[in-house]
Amino acid sequence: MKKPLSQCQYDLSLEQAEDYLKTIFPRVSRTFAITIPQLPSPLRRVVMNAYLLARILDTIEDDYALTIEQKFYYGKKFIWILENDIKSAKEFALEIAPKLSIQTNEAERELMYNLPLVLKITQTFNARQRQAIQRCVKIMWDGMQIFLKQRSESGLETLEDLNIYCYHAAGVVGEMLTELFADYSNKIAQNSEEMQKLAISFGNGLQITNILLDHWEDRKEGFCWLPRSLYGNDLYHLKPESYNENYRKSQTVMVNIAYKNLQEALKYTLLIPESEAGIRRFLFWTISFSLFSLSRIQEKPSFSKKEEIKVPRTNILKVIMITRILGTGDKTLTNFFNSVSLTIPDLNL
């Protein structure tokens, strides 16, 4: 019989905690379960840990059973524990986890119960690493407070609102990664100032792609992140059958905005020394997966289900094999990026 989630083993050793989190990680993120293992071991555990903490905050934000007041209460408490009082994590986990909706992914509920194990590992990081993670999650929380109140099927008002939302949801992750990379390598640290100028684009490109991919599923849940200044004021009434020329043009503009962010993300990747092939693979695979999706959306902007634009598994295998066989040199990565993006028009935005 499967052990109830509430009967968690909080007394696990550090090594056992690490092993457990490696097991649960693919259950909460299929994409990053492919890319994060490419990182060098010292970075891998830190980035994985940061992702799990961000995922816990996302679970609080997205859970159906929690009221908005509870989301604000538990979000604030979670940040306090992360920054000041890790010893309270067990009490927090046992309080909030049973309140989560049965619709919430089982692995995410299990992760919530096991927050103390995540933080046990966080405590082993150096001060710079912990500060980078805390800053990232705190900024995500700041955005959550803003946009929880604005969630609606009417979308966001402007493209600037979209940029602000994407920064809090993902752009800040690029900033955190830059700090973690610089802490890991003195060679990378030499480029960190230039990398920070491009870091936000890395996260924003991924987030805008996800917004486009998840648009119709999000609408079923009662919210939309598309900007009315681009799509028009009838977003609230938008349905797949109401697809028109303005919607097609708006989809193309959004694809292009994401594409330009991914171009900056490629420049960011190329600032990583070629000797750090694992970091380059982590970044480039992540970029490529989004680029594949953008190409599919551009080919069929009228899609109403993600299954219609699903990226073939062969595409994923292609980028993995090419970077394994031909390496991660500047020319290889640039040529592959350009070949995948041939169908995306480069608009003068």
Write a structural description.
- The chain has 349 residues and is mostly helical.
- The protein has 16 helices and no strands.
- The chain has helices spanning 14-28, 30-35, 41-62, 68-84, 89-96, 106-113, 115-122, 127-148, 159-184, 186-189, 192-220, 228-231, 245-270, 277-299, 313-325, 330-340.
- Residues 1-7 have low confidence and may be disordered.
The count of domains is 2
Helix/strand/pairing category: mainly alpha
The number of distinct β-strands equals 0
Q: What would the principal axes of the Cα set say about the shape?
A: globular
Topology order in helix (H) and strand (E) letters: HHHHHHHHHHHHHHHH
Q: In percent terms, what proportion of residues is strand?
A: under 5%
* Largest sheet composition: none
Nearest-integer average pLDDT: 93
What's the alpha carbon Rg, rounded to whole Å? 20 Å
**End-to-end gap:** 58 Å
**Helix content bin:** 55-70%
The total of helices stands at 16
| CATH level-3 fold name of the largest domain | Farnesyl Diphosphate Synthase
Instruction: Write the CATH homologous superfamily of the largest domain.
Output: Farnesyl Diphosphate Synthase
What CATH architecture label of the largest domain applies? Answer: Orthogonal Bundle
In terms of per-residue confidence, which ranges show pLDDT below 50 for 5 or more consecutive residues?
1-7
